[in-house]
Write a structure and sequence with these properties.
The complex is a heterodimer of chains A (311) and B (555). Chain A is mostly helical and 311 residues long. Helix content of chain A is 76%, strand content 0%. In chain A, α4 (86-121) packs antiparallel against α5 and α12 (258-268) crosses α13 (271-299). Chain A is flat, with a radius of gyration of 24 Å. In chain B, 30% of the residues lie in helices and 18% in strands. The model of chain B is unreliable at 1-11 and 26-30 (pLDDT under 50). Chain B has helices spanning 2-8, 13-26, 34-41, 63-72, 121-132, 150-154, 185-188, 199-205, 265-273, 288-292, 322-330, 334-339, 370-379, 399-416, 427-435, 454-457, 474-486, 490-507; strands spanning 43-47, 77-79, 86-88, 91-96, 102-107, 166-170, 173-177, 227-233, 237-242, 256-260, 299-312, 347-348, 391-396, 420-425, 441-447, 510-521, 526-527, 543-544. In chain B, β8 (227-233) and β9 form a beta hairpin.
């Protein structure tokens, strides 16, 4: 098991390195620079700015300087927000985005697993078709449509819930969490249905039933564990996706998270901020994938046996 | 066996998740709104458009930054919110010498920094050195270029700041020597790039020219305006409280202000409707008719010192021919555009300077005239659009710009029978294309930094950084740069500007489209938010009256 983890960690390093290098050169190749503005920047001012941000150095020296700063954990100063470092901005946005992602994931899990299991227990009946149709709609409906719809219904017409902000008014976290979680709930519902269907047809389930165990025990004790493996494998990438993909939701609900900074950094050509967020998120994605692989392996008796034998 | 049961049983975590979710959900239900609470406590809740880049007056630029910095700091002179004429700020009065090239500012001896220190003339000398120093990289350094030798210092041509025309004669007397009489110079004292900063505070965190130090953070910043910074939660809010050391504190009614980064106009409008904000930075275009229909509407629309226009690259065919440029301009039905596409939130423009810029009215040389436009186009060799080589209009990606471009494209097709392509470009790509002059026609907007025709007309001097059209005329340069500053009175000066603008518009290097207007929603409880051309708000004059509610239709 340790060997497996160590190998996967070593594999992650070149991945992240390639991401850094590609991003570094790509952002600089994009037309326009961080200091271009509607009102033209005087040449003498531009020179001073470039010197302060080391942009006057040859490209390879900038690259090496960035790598050496990065090795010290310093993501550099933001171009767009002078006086703030990229580290600071990331860490101000991360807890918010993580919290949003966490709530969204929980909503997705509860709704998704319940719907998926219910559907799998009575396949090809109404109990299957209704949640699965809803799940299909959930997958298809983009958050930039669902968000305003929820706002319209629950915020404006019914006036039950606040429509923007994060943590300022009680209840303002509900709509964004649902908006973000809905698509993932739908995925999870379909994954758990498929997983459960496969497991429920296995011999050991028939054995359990033959022993005379009540159906709820068969499901919760024996079937769920195997049936949810695909869901668990999906959780790592899903959480990373929630972190990186919350931009739309954060914009609709004015949530001060990471996602909003990420895309704006690209529009602003905020080189250090783009790089910082990319490095940070790609590291997270790699880590979460690794975590979900480990969990999946641990849950799967066949793989677990392999590790025991190998180690 | 017990372990097996525990790990096998997946049931417990579903109720657990449900419990957490429900606890999340039970937090719902709205309490007292920001507005009601704010009215009681004297706290204004202010939609500020965007998260500011920062609060350092010599480093940042932008409208949200302007609102914040002008609440925290005060210039030598401030603008009267109604007339926009300068009135005392840190300086209680100022005098001019005979040829109006030397200004002596007499600082209010009661003017204090928020730590209690006196605001002195030498603070200004130090701060202007910082604002102009080449290493600071101040985008607005040129605001101080009217000061003698300031431009040379900023360009690194001279090193000794003592040669620049600003001297502290004593603690409360500041003498400023200008290159030439500059009638709008006092106005510039209300622009944040000319504000003083507290030298000791800055030096505590780094060098004078450092851009990255944390001196503007809560707890560090020392300022001299009506308010002080008390809280700054990135992308959430910026809170300010009344400054107990401010010299005119008795006339400050508010106890505090909370600024919100309201980037999304739609959400901002919703926040306003549920009384989370006293004032919004904008109003979504499609909501304007709704708000207009309400009696005692909180909707406020006022002319703004800015012009929306199309830049023409006069070196590219077919727009290198002035007849083609005129034909294009005359075939745009600005009244219709303003009425339909822009919901009457703008004013049709026929020149670059907005009307009534401190009493200046620009020339109007043409009108919507499709017949004459067709004649001009025929003269240029494209009768009824025959042989038209095509034309491309670029704009930065934005729904409003697209709608206007589509409308203009249709008007040109209808009235001139010519095909024009319109293409959107991402913001920085578009900026790059404009500055490299890699376009035929490009959308452009210009918002004035100070109320004077000069601010619009000096765009088009030969090779001016924001000219981008290729328009070059020595006579025009001479009028703007030499004759106008030497005019002995405003009437003569405006006459020179008028003649220069007439020359410019006869060459039509731009197609003016409309004059901007500001759109805000202002809660009925707010008093003292006087509209003006600069959208320049002095929070010192704002008062809150408790007990007033939004009109019934909005509740």
């Amino acid at each position: 098991m340790l060997k497996f983890i160590a190998t996967r960690l070593l594999q992650a390093i070149p991945v992240i390195f390639i991401v850094i290098t590609a991003t570094f050169f790509l952002v600089r190749a994009a037309p326009g620079g961080p200091f271009d503005d509607e009102k033209v920047v005087l040449p003498e001012v531009k020179r001073a700015l470039e010197a302060q941000y080391k942009l006057d150095l040859p490209l390879h020296e900038q690259y090496l300087a960035y790598l050496s700063d990065l090795a010290n954990g310093d993501l550099g100063p933001s171009f767009k927000y002078p006086g703030r470092s990229v580290n600071e901005i990331l860490f101000s946005g991360l807890p918010v985005t993580a919290e949003l992602g966490f709530y969204a994931l929980m909503i997705a899990l509860v709704i998704g697993v319940l719907a998926g299991v219910a559907a799998a227990l009575k396949p090809n009946t109404r109990q299957d078709y209704i949640p699965m149709t809803l799940a299909m709609i959930g997958i298809c409906m983009p958050s930039f449509l669902l968000g305003p719809l929820l706002v319209l219904v629950f915020g404006i017409y019914l006036e039950w819930l606040p429509i923007s902000g994060w943590g300022a008014i009680p209840g303002d976290k509900i709509l964004p969490s649902i908006t973000l979680g809905a698509a993932y709930a739908a995925y999870i519902a379909r994954l758990s249905r498929a997983g459960m269907l496969e497991v429920l047809s296995q011999d050991y389930i028939r054995t359990a039933r033959a022993k005379g165990l009540p159906e709820w025990k068969v499901v919760t004790k024996h079937a769920l564990r195997g049936g949810l493996i695909p869901v668990i494998a999906f959780l790592g990438p899903a959480f990373a996706g929630l972190l990186a993909g919350s931009f739309v939701v954060e914009t609709i609900f004015q949530i001060p998270g990471l996602g909003r900074f990420y895309v704006q950094a690209a529009f602003n050509r905020d080189y250090t901020m783009i790089l910082g967020t990319t490095v940070f998120l790609s590291t997270l994605i790699v880590l979460f994938n690794l975590l979900s692989d480990i969990t999946a392996a641990w849950l799967n008796p066949r793989l677990r046996a392999q590790f025991k034998g190998g180690a | 066996m017990a372990t097996v049961i525990r790990t096998n049983n997946a049931l417990p975590w579903i109720p657990l998740l449900l419990a957490v979710l429900i606890s999340l959900l039970t937090g719902c239900g709205t309490g007292e709104s920001n507005v009601v609470q704010g009215n009681r406590n004297g706290i204004l809740h202010y939609g500020n458009g965007a998260e500011p880049q920062g609060l350092d007056p010599h480093v940042v630029t932008g409208v949200p930054e302007n609102h914040l910095i002008r609440a925290l700091f005060e210039g030598l002179a401030v603008k009267n919110p109604v007339t926009l004429e300068p009135e005392p700020g840190v300086a209680e009065r100022w005098t001019f010498n005979d040829d109006r090239t030397v200004i002596t500012f007499y600082l209010n001896p009661d003017a204090r920094w928020s730590n209690g220190d006196q605001v002195t003339a030498s603070d200004y000398v130090w701060s202007w050195n910082r604002a102009l120093h080449p290493m600071t990289g101040n985008l607005y350094a040129y605001m101080l270029y009217p000061v003698k030798n300031a431009e040379r210092y900023a360009k690194g041509e001279i090193d000794d700041f003592a040669d620049v025309g600003v001297k502290a004669l004593d603690d409360t007397t500041l003498e400023v020597t200008l290159n030439a009489p500059t009638p709008y110079f006092i106005q510039l004292m209300d622009h944040y790039s000319t504000f003083a900063v507290h030298p000791e505070t800055l030096m505590q965190f780094g060098e004078m020219t450092d851009r990255f130090t944390p001196w503007t953070r809560v707890g560090n910043i020392v300022s001299n305006g009506a308010f002080v910074l008390t809280d700054w939660a990135l992308n959430r809010h910026i809170k300010m409280a009344k400054n107990p050391h401010y010299w005119d504190r008795e006339n400050v009614s508010l106890n505090g202000v909370v600024f919100y980064p309201t980037e999304n106009e739609v959400s901002e409008e919703r926040m306003f409707r549920v009384e989370q904000l006293h004032r919004t930075e904008g109003v979504p275009l499609d909501k304007v008719p709704v708000y207009r229909a309400i009696a005692d509407s909180p909707y406020m629309q006022d002319p703004y010192l800015g012009t929306y226009y199309y830049l023409i690259n006069t070196d590219r065919e077919p727009v290198n021919d002035v007849r083609v440029r005129k034909a294009l301009s005359m075939a745009v039905d600005r009244e219709q555009l303003a009425r339909t596409v822009m919901q009457e939130v703008v004013i049709p423009a026929y020149s670059i300077t907005p009307p009534n810029t401190l009493g200046y009215h620009p020339p109007k040389l043409f009108d919507f005239n499709p017949e004459m436009a067709r004649e001009l186009l025929a003269e240029a060799g494209y009768p009824n659009g025959d042989g038209w080589p095509g034309l491309e209009v670029i704009y930065n990606t934005n729904e409003a710009h697209r709608k206007i471009a589509v409308a203009v494209q249709q008007m040109w097709k209808k009235h001139l029978n010519i095909d024009v392509t319109i293409s959107n470009q991402e913001w920085k790509v578009y900026l790059n294309a404009v500055s490299q002059r890699d376009f035929q026609v490009a959308r452009r907007g210009w918002i004035g930094d100070y109320v004077d025709p000069n601010n619009f007309l000096d765009l088009f001097i030969t090779d001016g950084g924001n000219n981008n059209t290729g328009y070059a005329d020595e006579r025009y340069d001479d009028m703007i740069l030499q004759q106008a500053p030497r005019a002995t009175n405003q009437e003569e000066r405006f006459k020179i500007f008028y003649d220069a603008e007439t020359m410019l518009m006869e060459q039509m290097p731009i197609i003016p489209i409309y004059t901007y207007a500001t759109r805000h929603l202002v809660h009925p409880s707010v008093e003292g938010m006087t509209p003006n051309l600069m959208d320049s708000l002095n929070l010192k004059y704002v008062k809150l009256v408790p007990g007033r509610r939004l009109p019934q239709e909005l509740q």
